[in-house]
Recover the amino acids of this structure.
């Protein structure tokens, strides 16, 4: 059994039955959700409770904005922040840096800036560890947000599937911390992990959220008063809810929606979607081809805002190095595909010319010569293209 196959706490219904992926019923999913949201059952459930409580608090400024300060212009500002800024940050910091180490910050100061670039929504522990497992077992039993489990399976995944195991040995725990050590999280000692069941400490996590939210609410208030601050914080609630099913949609909702010439990764059902691609740089099929790359937008139309942010940090000295696989993508995938298209076009053109020549009017000796010449050419070309 590989290390990544046992780092997450398995649900009571299990990932496998009869040696196949088990898709739980909605009743089983909600039952597991309630169990893991029960602090009276175990204080080790604190992180799930904290995440959902913090996200729920964002509904308060949304309500205040809608009832006290609503305007279409502020709604637009809030939605741009929610969809574009938060989305790009998630790709930039949680996905490409904390999980895949696609680039390196110059020092801890720049990492602190990168970590707190936006309103804090998702703890690193919840995202990073489970995402390593997702890539190891994509669409297989053990994938914490396996698309074959359905929409609700993915929506509740942060609670029912993404929490780390509560019975890791000391060496296993130390190994687990190495998966997330670049993220800036201050880890529990092993004895603290045994008490809290998490890598991060509840007090430090709550303090980080409080300071982050206070700073950003204050900054937005100074710019545009409570109206702007509630608009942005409130719309962040929309992103916090919607992001939960990104992987379900990013893997075609369990159906093969990959397109030839666009989605070159054939190992899973991941697809390059226009909306997540443009607002957050999440060209998901490309990402599964090169998970550790700092860029996922490879084709000319594939805008990658997270990549542009990485380049901006690099230009001002905040990022020392990054991995870019665009040239390798072109060499190994795009160029061979385009060459095959050109070859097919040439073959189709040759066959069209032959068909035209064979159907042309012919008479007398000249016609016989043309027919003999055409027949000989036809045999040669047919042999060349394997007909």
């Amino acid at each position: 059994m590989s290390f990544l196959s046992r780092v997450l706490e398995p649900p009571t219904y299990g990932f496998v039955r009869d040696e196949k992926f088990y898709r739980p019923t909605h009743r089983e999913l909600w039952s597991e959700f309630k169990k893991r949201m029960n602090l009276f059952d175990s204080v080790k459930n604190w992180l799930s409770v904290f995440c959902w409580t913090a996200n729920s608090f964002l509904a308060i400024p949304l309500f205040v904005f809608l009832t006290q300060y609503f305007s279409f212009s502020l709604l637009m500002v809030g939605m741009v922040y929610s969809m574009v800024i938060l989305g790009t940050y998630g790709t930039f910091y949680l996905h490409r840096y904390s999980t895949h180490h696609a680039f390196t910050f110059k020092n801890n100061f720049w990492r602190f800036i990168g970590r707190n670039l936006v309103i804090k929504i998702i703890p690193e522990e919840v995202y990073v560890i489970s995402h390593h497992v997702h890539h190891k077992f994509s669409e297989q039993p053990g994938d914490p947000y396996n698309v074959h489990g359905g929409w609700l399976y993915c929506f509740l995944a942060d609670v029912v599937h993404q929490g780390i195991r509560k019975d890791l040995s000391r060496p296993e725990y130390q190994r687990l911390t190495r998966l997330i050590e670049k993220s800036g999280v201050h880890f529990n000692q092993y004895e603290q992990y045994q008490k809290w069941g998490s890598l991060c400490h509840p007090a430090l996590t709550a303090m980080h959220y409080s300071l982050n939210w206070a700073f950003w609410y204050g900054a937005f208030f100074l710019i545009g008063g409570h109206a702007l601050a509630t608009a942005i914080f409130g719309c962040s609630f929309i992103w916090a809810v919607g992001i939960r099913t990104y992987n379900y949609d990013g893997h075609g909702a369990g159906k093969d929606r990959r397109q030839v010439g666009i989605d070159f990764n054939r190992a899973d059902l991941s697809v390059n979607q226009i909306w997540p691609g443009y607002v957050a740089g999440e060209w998901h099929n490309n990402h599964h081809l090169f998970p550790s790359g700092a860029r996922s937008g490879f084709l000319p139309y594939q805008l990658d805002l997270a990549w542009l942010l990485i380049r901006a940090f690099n230009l001002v000295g905040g990022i020392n190095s990054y991995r870019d696989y665009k040239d390798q993508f072109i060499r190994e995938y795009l160029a061979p595909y385009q060459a095959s298209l050109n070859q097919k076009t040439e073959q189709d053109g040759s066959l069209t010319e032959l068909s035209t020549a064979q159907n042309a009017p012919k008479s007398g000796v000249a016609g016989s010569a043309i027919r003999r010449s055409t027949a000989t050419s036809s045999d040669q070309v047919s042999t060349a293209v394997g007909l």
Remarks:
- Residues 363-387 have pLDDT under 50 and may be disordered.
- The longest helix spans residues 202-242.
- Residues 330-385 form one domain.
